[in-house]
């Protein structure tokens, strides 16, 4: 046997193979060499090409690099020189099926008609009803369709972060992750507050002071623990809470039939419309369809389950808004000043009596719990997905014994507690502003991948061509611009400051990685987004 190859021989081999990317290396060869080194074996190890950087991303062999296409598994991992690759961690968590996924989407987007009352107060019954019929056509349906196509194209927990990374590069992928995670945490800070708001009429002590602060903390801890116990538990809890939240409005609709006056539905005064509040209410109640993409890696057969669940959830969300508004505005005389957050419980008391009002109060409280656990699941698994792609330190990818992202859950819960002091209107406006920026990046990524890589594998594909894809994104983009333009100066300054933090955070994390202060790694179980052959139509490159 010949002695092991020396460092000088490796360096000489590098010089003779300049046409190879300096970071290219055989994963199997690297593992064999490390094993031989550890066991003191004298067999000749394969030649390994190593660059001068401290962390090397294991890539596929030169022969295989010409045939890697999107969706193929590349066992890639960051390892230090002289360090053996760590074994891949396989999660034993149960996958989410269709019904729990439908209600997870329902709570990501809606949770029921709680919070739509401001649309009547801002614009009157006619515009409120039309808004929840037209807005889904120009916003919800395009967003849900894009989520179905891109989510099945990249069925992993990074979700929209991976979409943007594959099309626009890792820098913009990180910005997408930062803005979407922050908007999600801001959104989640709202639900413990709303939960207590619905209960304070019966328990006045929860209206403020130390009891309210303690209640917010206790509620956050309980719901966070539920997320820790597993996504399948969260999914079935969402089903139970969803049925409990929707049922009283179905009863209210039946009881209201004899009292309906169709003339009340067409009341409108275009000179007295608060367009900012009206559009923000519609936008807030009908967005976040893409949030479910960050759970795609936890879904059973996502190529079929995800599009199906999005379709069912879309129908459920639209009906859960439109029908209660139809019965509420048609059965009682209009007083727009009363139509504010939480007014549906009073409407139910007028229509059906105190028992129905109490039922809707309880349903509202439960709905906020459902929205909290669904949003936290999405936010925490997004951080796990970003860590698996090497965008965040490796400890974010660690799972608990229940298969849940423990560090991501703790970070998201901390953000909720820190932001829970904001008012309802400030929360909605701030999260909408950040969400709009993220959606623009998603539209750009969707269109670019359609143009540059039309032949890439898409288990679900929207039945429109390139021109249709572009046209489909125009109406929601116009709506985004309108929402941004109507933002207050305060919200704009705070939101732009948050965006600026993300622009600095990504290079800062790269510096931390370069200095090896924290460990970053790419999961061995994910397909490679860096494809060597840029000429093939079925590969995705940036």
Automatic annotation (TrEMBL):
Keywords: Cell membrane, Membrane, Symport, Transmembrane, Transmembrane helix, Transport. GO terms for cellular component: plasma membrane. The keyword Transport applies. The chain crosses the membrane at residues 96-116, 122-146, 158-175, 210-228, 234-255, 310-334, 354-374, 406-424, 430-451, 463-485, 491-509. GO terms for molecular function: polyamine transmembrane transporter activity; symporter activity. It is a multi-pass membrane protein. InterPro entries: AA/rel_permease1 (IPR002293), RMV1-like (IPR044566). It holds the Pfam family AA_permease_2. The keyword Chloroplast does not apply. Its main location: membrane. It comes from the Eukaryota. It is found in: Cell membrane. Belongs to the amino acid-polyamine-organocation (APC) superfamily. Polyamine:cation symporter (PHS) (TC 2.A.3.12) family. This is Probable polyamine transporter At1g31830 isoform X5. It comes from Cucumis melo. The gene is LOC103499237.
